[in-house]
Structures are given as C-alpha cells and as structure tokens.
Amino acid sequence: MSATRMLSVLCAAALFGAPIAAADSSAARVKEIPAFGLGTWLSERDEVAHAVEYALQNGYNHIDAARIYRNEDKTGRGIAASGVGRESIWVTSKLWNYDHRDAEAHAAIRKSIEDLGVDQLDLYLIHWPVAFVPGEGTKLDKKTSLVDTWRTMEDLVRAGLTRHIGVSNFAKRDVEAILDICTICPYAHEFETHPYLQQQDFVDWHREVGIKVIAYSPLANTNPIYHRGLPSILEDPFWEKLAEAKNATVAQTILAWGLARDTVVIPKSSSEKHLDANLGALDIKFTDEELKEVAKQDKKVRMSNPGKNWGVKLFIDLDDPSTESSNSNEEL
Ligand SMILES: NC(=O)c1ccc[n+]([C@@H]2O[C@H](COP(=O)([O-])OP(=O)(O)OC[C@H]3O[C@@H](n4cnc5c(N)ncnc54)[C@H](OP(=O)(O)O)[C@@H]3O)[C@@H](O)[C@H]2O)c1
C-alpha cells in the first residue's frame, strides 16, 4: 500500500474507527466498522474465496456477507486463506427473513459463524423488515413483529455471538420503532444509496440519531442484474467528466463520493483489477462546489425492491418510484 493510500485509510479510520491492525493484538481489534468493505452478493461460489483472500491481503479489512448469498462457507475459506488475523477483520452477516423467530435466529447466526470460520460476528443485521413463516416459503409471519425480532437480536449480543446488531432496508418508521424499545440499539443501517438514489435526508437523519450508514450497491446500476434499461453510471457523462478532473476512474470517483458523505461503502468485486482499483477511492477528495453538483445528479432510482415479490410495501416515505424497469431482486 502506498504511503498516500495508508494515510487515507488512517483518515477514514479517524471517521469510522481503526480499520488497520496494530502490532499489539488487544489494541488491534477492529473497534468500529471500516469505511471501505467488500460486498459478496452474487460473488460466484467458485470465485468468492479468492476475491476475499486477495482483498484481505491487499488493503481490505471488512467483509459484507449474508446467509442468503449462499456463499458464506466459501467466503470463510477466503478469510482463512488470507492469513490475516481475526482481530484485524470486520465481518458482517445478516439474518434472513425465515429466521426471525428466536430458535431460528440463534441457529442461523451459529451457522453463519461456522461457515465464515469466525469466533463471533462484528455486526449482524436484520436483512429485511419482513418475517416469513419458517418452512413455508415466503408466507408472511404475522406473529413475529420487528420488535420481537429486535429483542432476539439483542439476545444474540448477550450470548456473545455478535458484537453489534443493526438493520437493513428499513423505513424510517421501522427504525424509530426499534429505537423506542431497544436496550442494545442499532449500530448501523445498511441500505441502498448511491449517486442515483442519494436519500440525503435519510442519511443525515441516521447521523443525528447515531446510527452508521452502510451504503449498498454503492456503484449504482453497475450490478448487472439492475436496470438493464438505464445506461451504466460508469458511462454517465457527468461522472466521466468529474473522474477525469480527479485523474481517476468513474468507479473510484463514485466510491469516493460515498466516503465523502460519511457512508460506509461495500462494493462487490471478484476481479483483482477492480479490487485494487476501487481502493483508489480513498485518495480522492471533493470541493464543496463539486459536492453540490453531485447532489443535483440524484435520479431517485431504486434498483432493489424484492418487496414486490413478497407482497410487502417497503421503503415507506422514501424514494421508491417502483418503475417497470426497477429490479425486484428475483435472486433473493
Ligand atoms: N443489505 C442488502 O439488502 C444488500 C442488498 C444489495 C447489496 N448488498 C451488499 O452490498 C454489496 C455491493 O452491492 P452490489 O453488489 O449490489 O453492487 P455494487 O458493489 O455497486 O456493484 C457490483 C458490480 O460492479 C462491478 N464492479 C466493481 N468494481 C468495478 C470497477 N472498478 N469497474 C467496473 N465494474 C466494477 C462488479 O463486477 P466485478 O465482480 O467483475 O468487479 C459487480 O458486477 C453486495 O455485494 C452486498 O454485500 C446488501
């Protein structure tokens, strides 16, 4: 890692905690979520282990996993093969919809821990604010409320299975319902946000209430299952021009903007070239004028909304144009 890159990682550490291992192991534990992580959704089972191993050996220290990605065992192999100490890696996983009940949640987190090959998780998220009846497909579980599930999540912390808990894909009112009752409160909220779905007010509100924002799909519609009808953001003339001015790639510039607004970014890649290049985002800064121009580029386009498949209205009071071309995440 270059000296400039190391300095940038340390600057990000000042914002988000310490992502870099120090010599003393007790001091080295990753205390807060690192600002830059590796996504693993749609990472092929025969590619993800190498991607994780390569990433951890080349500057990454944060892996975003989930049981529903069906690759946590291979992700765990990558973590082990990297040779990087557990104390230097932040590992997030997520509770799937059919595991919201108490017994299922305990079994699910234990399975994720086993597959990922770790002692405990750093962060465990309720993947969606939707509970299915266990063993009955996508039949909605009307008996298990989000508050019930949150109390179960708190038990997982008390049992030492995860250091922190959080939510994902929640509407503001769902987060507020948790804040009203929590004794261990949400550490982070992972949701879709990128230049085409900025949701700045929602991001700002999380800062006010002390919940970190993890920006998923930080490269907007670069994920190939998204918005086949919308031109790739990587070819968007606004971003091409801004990237040129920074002497950077469009992907690096977009990720740098995610960091500049104090969100944690977790781009997925299985390519060594992209894994290396994406870290270059840590070296890019913006002027206030540039940030104002980026704010004008919000298209308010949501890429991911499986609620349509589940018969659930998600993202209440948030940007969700639910266009015909919007992807409904059949993969999940
Ligand atoms: N909580 C949730 O419900 C939720 C939902 C969606 C995503 N997530 C998390 O967020 C992560 C990231 O989101 P995402 O996977 O949807 O989208 P993304 O990270 O924004 O985009 C991933 C796509 O971009 C490509 N890519 C990466 N770097 C690139 C570069 N420098 N140049 C060109 N293409 C590049 C990747 O291909 P290559 O592999 O070929 O590089 C991949 O196809 C997921 O993997 C997952 O961990 C969470």
From TrEMBL:
Q: Which GO terms describe its molecular function?
A: oxidoreductase activity, acting on the CH-OH group of donors, NAD or NADP as acceptor
Question: Which residues are responsible for catalysis?
Answer: Y69 (proton donor)
- Which InterPro entries did the record assign? AKR, Aldo/ket_reductase_CS, NAD(P)_OxRdtase_dom_sf, NADP_OxRdtase_dom
User: What CDD domains does its record include?
Assistant: AKR_AKR1-5-like
Q: Where does substrate bind?
A: H127
List UniProt keywords, sorted A-Z.
NADP, Oxidoreductase, Signal
One Pfam family here: Aldo_ket_red
Instruction: Site Lowers pKa of active site Tyr: give positions.
Output: K94
Top-level taxon:
Eukaryota
Q: Which residues form the NADP-dependent oxidoreductase domain?
A: 37-296
Please state the span of the N-terminal signal peptide per the UniProt entry: 1-22
* Coiled coil feature spans: none
Entry keyword annotation includes Transmembrane: no
PANTHER family this protein is in? 2,5-DIKETO-D-GLUCONIC ACID REDUCTASE, NADP-DEPENDENT OXIDOREDUCTASE DOMAIN-CONTAINING PROTEIN
Per the similarity annotation, which family is this?
Belongs to the aldo/keto reductase family.
Q: What is this protein called?
A: NADP-dependent oxidoreductase domain-containing protein
Q: Which organism is it from?
A: Neoarthrinium moseri
